[in-house]
Amino acid sequence: MRSLITGTGIGVPRHVVTNEALSRLMDTSDEWIRVRSGIQERRYADPGQGSTSLGVIAAGNAIADAGLKPGDIDSVIFATMTPDHVLPGNGPLLQVALGLRDIPTFDIRQQCSGFLYGLELADLFIQSGRYRRVLLVGAEVHTSFMPWHLGWDTLIGQSTREITEAERAENTASRDRTVLFGDGAGAVVIEGRDGVAGLGPIRLHTDGTGAGVLTMLGAGFKRRPFVTHEQIDAGETLPIMSGKEVFKSAVTLMPQAVREVCEVAGVAVESLDLVLVHQANLRIIEGVQKALGLPAGKVPHNIERYGNTTAATLPILFHECRQQGLVKPGMNLMFTALGSGLHWGAALYRT
After folding, report:
1. CA torsion angle for 136, 138, 139, 142 (degrees, to 10)?
2. CB neighbours (10 Å) of residue 245?
3. With the C-alpha atoms ordered 333, 276, 121, 253, is the resulting torsion angle positive or negative?
């Protein structure tokens, strides 16, 4: 029996924020952002619209795409680094919103590798016979990290005021991160089916010595109290990132994981039909493509339209590849991701 993806769906906010729009709030430009990241626009959620809300949209679409009803789902895995609340997790909130049965929900937080880790869990659940139909959701609302009190409300039409020079300077100080992220959700339904199609080998890795490369210092329970005005004023509730280290790790470790999975599966790297790479930065995606020696057509991307949506990038990309007819029966498809932790890995999927 294989773990087969039988339905996909996405949920993206209505607000499209271009690079030019961001330039009204900070010292940046469309060219500056495109050259460094490949991003042209991203989506921002409405105030009060959390990762659960977007996840519910994506999950509902995925369940319908699979030809199922909410009552058919046996368990939920919700991957996010931006939950609605510290507690409870998003799983129970999604359960209620979708009208699911009294089924277990699992909340996981492997950040950019969340969906990949969710695939591993879903496959183990199904192969063990514990659950037959698993709903896997990756959803993020990153705009909550951003300094919305410094003019960001103008980006979604809530205000027409001009920001001050002091606000512009403060926004510029965090532009290396804030321009990269967008909000969105993707979901898949995974069912146990006989046949050759479905998930193949999955290999996951964690190296905690790289935890400081991508982290957030504030709003943690190591601190007393866990969040203060001083932390906020110091920018400690924004993620910090060593861009060079992240790039180096990503273009090295993701190709290694892909090769590792290919070796286990007895599949040549060059025979892969599609490689879906976590959409963190177009330069990273291109670096992974070149490291694997694959043509650009085998490594699709949509980061230019969504930015980095963390745990949502892979399911959104997979859904869009299906919609565009890029995913055909009999293909060898590879998922790969790397994120804070450091967590990384790859998973083979036969369509």
Report:
1. 160
2. 14
3. positive
**CB under 8 Å to 181, separation ≥6 — which residues?**
42, 140, 142, 143, 145, 146, 307, 308, 309, 310
* Distance, CA of 321 to chain centre: 16
Say yes or no to pLDDT of 243 above 90.
no
User: Domain 198-300+308-350 belongs to what topology?
Assistant: Peroxisomal Thiolase; Chain A, domain 1 (3.40.47)
| In the chain, alpha helices (H) | 19-22, 30-37, 51-65, 90-98, 114-128, 165-173, 175-178, 229-233, 243-265, 282-292, 303-306, 313-323
Which burial class, exposed, middle or buried, applies to 85 when counting CB atoms under 10 A from its CB (0-12, 13-18, 19+)? exposed
Quick check: 100 pLDDT over 90?
Answer: yes
Residue reference for tokens 């993806």: 5
Residue 97 to residue 181: CA distance in whole angstroms: 26
Q: CA-based Rg of the chain, rounded to a whole angstrom? A: 20
Q: Please give the positions annotated as active site.
A: 112, 278, 308
User: 2-193: CATH homologous superfamily?
Assistant: Thiolase/Chalcone synthase (3.40.47.10)
β-sheet bridge partners, residue 87:
none
Task: Indicate the pLDDT class of residue 7, thresholds 50, 70 and 90.
Answer: very high
2-193 and 198-300+308-350 agree in CATH topology: yes
Could you tell me which residue, 154 or 65, shows the higher pLDDT?
65
Instruction: Give the C-alpha separation, 57 to 268, whole Å.
Output: 37
- At 153, the pLDDT band (50, 70, 90 cuts) reads confident
